[in-house]
Design a protein that fits this description.
Blueprint: H1 29-44, H2 55-76
Helix pairs in contact: 1-2
């Protein structure tokens, strides 16, 4: 699992900033998906305890998702 840069040796899942504020791990598809899912839960109001994702973190997750999808598309092209 990707390590949190703020707390060496601890995973981003245990970062004190939480999923809504931790900038680490955007190279991990699971982490990117978790951030985007958490944002949708907050946006839809599905959980009263959900916190808004930091715009910086959300932007990084969107950028990483697009990069991953484009990379998957290129790997699938056999032309």
């Amino acid at each position: 699992m990707t390590q949190c840069a703020e707390f060496a040796g601890r995973s981003w899942a245990t970062c004190t900033r939480g999923v809504e504020g931790c900038l680490c791990g955007m190279d991990d598809p699971y982490r990117v998906a978790r951030v985007l899912e958490a944002h949708n839960i907050w946006r839809r109001g599905e959980d009263d305890d959900a916190k808004q994702i930091s715009p910086e973190v959300l932007g990084l997750a969107f950028d990483a998702a697009v990069k991953m999808l484009r990379g998957a598309r290129k790997q699938g092209d056999k032309t």
